[in-house]
Amino acid sequence: MLEKRTPIPVTEAIERVMKYAGEGEAETVRLEEAYGRYLAEELRADHDVPPFDRSPYDGFAIRAVDSAQANLDNPVEFEVIETIGAGQVATKAVKPFQAVRIMTGAQIPAGCDAVVMLELAKQYERDGKTYMSIKRPFRPGDNISFQGEDAKKGDALVPKGTRINPGVQALLATFGYAKVKVARKPRIGIFATGSELLDVSDPLVPGKIRNSNAYMIQAQVVRSGAEPIYFGKLMDDLDTCFAAIQSALDQVDMLITTGGVSVGDYDYLPIIYKRLGAEVLFNKVAMRPGSVTTVAHLDGKLLFGLSGNPSACYVGYELFVRPVVRTRLFSTKPYLKKATAMLMADFPKPNPFTRFVRSYVALEDGRLTVAPVGMDKSNIVTSLARANALMVLPGGTRGFAKGDTVEVWLLEDEEGSDV
Ligand SMILES: Nc1nc2c(c(=O)[nH]1)N[C@H]1C(S)=C(S)[C@@H](COP(=O)(O)OP(=O)(O)OC[C@H]3O[C@@H](n4cnc5c(N)ncnc54)[C@H](O)[C@@H]3O)O[C@H]1N2
Ligand code: MOO
Ligand SMILES: [Mg+2]
Fold first, then answer.
1. 360 within some domain
2. N or C: which end of the chain has fewer CB within 10 A?
3. From the UniProt record, which GO molecular function terms apply (predicted)?
4. Are residues 295 and 242 in the same domain?
């Protein structure tokens, strides 16, 4: 007799998985390798930025008070006592009506409190000395880039769990992080199961198809910030699958299988979970596609039994695996970012299960619109190529119409959501 599966709501399924999400671990990488990784600790300023008052222009550093009387009819003259470029420090004390020729980025000489742009000064020589004159007054602080104006020592700049983008990379360099503490990428093992599966380079033969899920999942793993370990494809043979899965478990933090999870004669994952002694968290979810998604837990490791159907497999990853990965990357927002969008197509057929329709979200005239990107069936692979969102249509008795406002979960977003 076929075991009856009881569907549970998607939110409950996610909750059950997240109980076993575990915690992130830190590792150290060189700054050059940090881009795209996730910070394992908050980034704070340990010094002021900039660390000294500096010139934002090529020009002359002066004491503003000396320029007070300058106007078009009364140029004020300064003796130029030295020249400093960025990286150099003035060596002479600046006395009244003296100036230092200064370049962008150089430290403001002691005693000076304003900078005159080169274009506003006239420089000339007289009796072997260099002078410049200006025809307008400057106030203290004019054209100074002040110490700490960018960041003050102690400022919290980037929270733990942030993905290191080029800007974060710049800050890490600014604060001297030659080595960076980042989240260790969770290692996710992948098996594709199915006797019908061909390798990518195999020619098509009757009854068989190429294994696309393994490559799709590897990309999803990478997109979410984890490290895929692909163990290859398995024939639908119980003992072979069991042995392969059991031995792979030692090498990974969690394991994904695709296919073999439904109720068919050759769907062996349910038996394998039993043999392993794994606790099955659920084996039916009230969602389309991916209703057969099964998640089990064994000795602190999650085993994701994703559907063999490509669209169902894809959705299963984004809903159940991604938030676990993000949690282990120290994110406080591990879920897909949610938004609302205007539906651009009718969806008349009601469905008792919540639908996650592979869709394309666009920004049109300042508001989000959403349209499905292909046929809404779980065995469809072509629709995935253009999907940048999952449109969430709650199950129930009604369909949806063009113009309705619907929820969308964004697939390419980096920020995430805490719910
Ligand atoms: N009697 C029932 N039959 C089915 C049910 C059900 O409730 N009762 N559920 C259906 C649903 S819903 C889904 S989804 C599928 C899930 O099946 P499995 O997860 O067991 O996957 P398979 O049977 O192994 O394969 C399904 C389908 O996907 C193709 N596939 C598998 N692996 C790959 C791969 N790596 N790359 C590309 N395509 C793959 C496979 O050839 C099949 O066509 O079960 C329904 N049946
Ligand atoms: O698990 Mo199936 O995808 O609901 O079609
Ligand atoms: Mg099957």
1. yes
2. N
3. metal ion binding; molybdopterin molybdotransferase activity
4. yes
